[in-house]
Design goal:
It comes from Camellia sinensis var. sinensis (China tea). The protein has 2 helices and 17 strands. With 243 residues, it is mostly beta strands.
């Protein structure tokens, strides 16, 4: 079930009027201009579960922009699970940047090319988080599995409840081609749309879903959609707890 944003939102955290809710609470937009971006935060904290978010990303020349959707706790030793969508020049594929922070430390990035145009329609981006692993999914296709490596001394986020955040912001110092391509402010405002969300606490159904998808994540890296490799890893930091 997809829920309206009035059930999710704690507040529109920044951006003045650049964040808007309309269509009876079913649709939310975030905008970015040269002055400011915008963002929101959930009312509740979550410890394990599945979170689905439907997004339509910034269309056209979105170079320098980042649309983010992530889970995070608070403080200098916070945990965090990130989806970030890196803007591009018109016609270039969007890049999905994923990361996991544990006790304030990240450096677990992996990046992927999307195999479709994420600006034409809403697509579903999901995080399945259990005490054993984190799965990142795009339209229910697993693209990454981050396993619990505590047995070999690698911290894993499992003790701090996290809220859901999202923002649209200027990152043209690094987002597009390593910062070589800057935001074109004549194209502003840049706008991303959120159509709905779903949150499930991790019950038996969540656990069985994780088991079923354990092998699928690796297989999806070879799957082709319309003649294009569906998940193309383009950057990955070393991960001591990954096979």
């Amino acid at each position: 079930m997809v829920f309206p944003f009035k059930l999710l939102l704690g507040s529109l955290t920044w951006g003045d009027q650049r964040a808007k809710i309309f269509s009876g609470g079913q649709l939310l937009s975030l905008s970015l201009d040269k002055t400011s971006g915008s963002g929101f935060i959930s009312k509740k904290e979550y410890l394990f579960g599945r979170i689905d978010m439907q997004l339509k990303l910034v269309a056209g020349n979105s170079a320098g922009t980042v649309t983010s959707y992530y889970l995070s706790s608070q403080g200098p030793t916070h945990d965090e699970i990130d989806f970030e969508f890196l803007g591009n020049l018109s016609g270039d594929p969007y890049i999905v940047h994923t990361n996991v922070f544990t006790q304030g430390k990240g450096n677990r990035e992996q990046q992927f090319y999307l195999w479709f145009d994420p600006t034409r329609n809403c697509h579903t981006y999901s995080i399945v988080w259990t005490s054993q692993q984190i799965i990142f999914l795009v339209d229910n296709t697993p693209i990454r599995v981050f396993k619990n490596g505590e047995s070999i001394g690698v911290p894993f986020p499992k003790n701090q409840p996290m809220k859901i955040y999202s923002s649209l912001w200027n990152a043209d110092d690094w987002a597009t081609r390593g910062g070589l391509v800057k935001a074109d402010w004549t194209k502003a405002p840049f706008t991303a749309y959120y159509r709905g969300f779903n949150v499930q606490t991790c019950t038996g159904s969540c656990t069985s879903s994780v088991r079923r998808r354990r092998g699928e994540a690796r297989e999806s890296t070879e799957r082709r959609v319309g003649g294009v490799v569906s998940v193309n890893i383009i950057h990955a930091e070393a991960e001591a707890n990954q096979d």
